[in-house]
Amino acid sequence: GLELSVNNNAADFTLSTTSGPPVSLSCLVQNNSQAEELLWYREDGAVDLRDGNKVNVSNICISPVSEDDNGITFTCMLKRDQSVRVSVILDVQYPPLLTGEKSLTIEEGKSVTLTCDAKSNPQGQANWYKNNDTLTLEQDRYQVYQTSDVFQLSIKKAQKSDNGTYTCVVKSALGEGRKDFHLIVEDKKTVFPMEAIIAAAVVVALTVLFGIVARREKIFKVRKAPMSYEKFSIVLL
């Protein structure tokens, strides 16, 4: 019966490739008795095809292939019967994408988390270094967390001895990526209790208030004081 093939595959398949070089997909109608128009889809979106590239044979080219194309499905189907189709999933392989550096400043006694976002296919593995030496993880203060593309190092209650450059190195079969974190641990800041600050503010406010009241009372008394008149005696000579 009527069927399709993509790159000589009559059933759905996965195509492994690497990022960079282009990939060509060729869809062919087989066992047809008439001209058949073809459609291409990238996931759920239709691919625009030129006239002359739609009937019986249709070719598309993905160029350049990038890591964003990994896991994307391309489907060729008959226009008049879209149940007749063949899909191909791209398996794009690429090394860990991780570069750069970052500086962090933290107060002594606080916690900090260093995060590496490193996508790769196949999945990479992370190692942490401090000042170019393998980091010895203190179980009670260091914690490592890892998913397929996120690698984290958490330091609890940072100390002055934690100052230094931490490096996240992610390796896979295709290469490696790295990122530096320059950590600076500052002296712990002196914090006054909020209750003491409020109490001091109240004392100052009351002192000022009483001073104003006392001054007003003094002025008021001066203004109210009765005037004294001297008595004059007139002596007639």
Automatic annotation (TrEMBL):
Pfam families: I-set (PF07679), ig (PF00047). The keyword Ubl conjugation does not apply. The keyword Aminoacyl-tRNA synthetase does not apply. SUPFAM superfamilies: Immunoglobulin. Keywords: Disulfide bond, Immunoglobulin domain, Membrane, Transmembrane, Transmembrane helix. SMART domains: IG, IGc2. PANTHER family: IG-LIKE DOMAIN-CONTAINING PROTEIN, VASCULAR CELL ADHESION MOLECULE 1. This is TMIG1 protein. It comes from Dromaius novaehollandiae (Emu). The lineage of its organism: Eukaryota, Metazoa, Chordata, Craniata, Vertebrata.
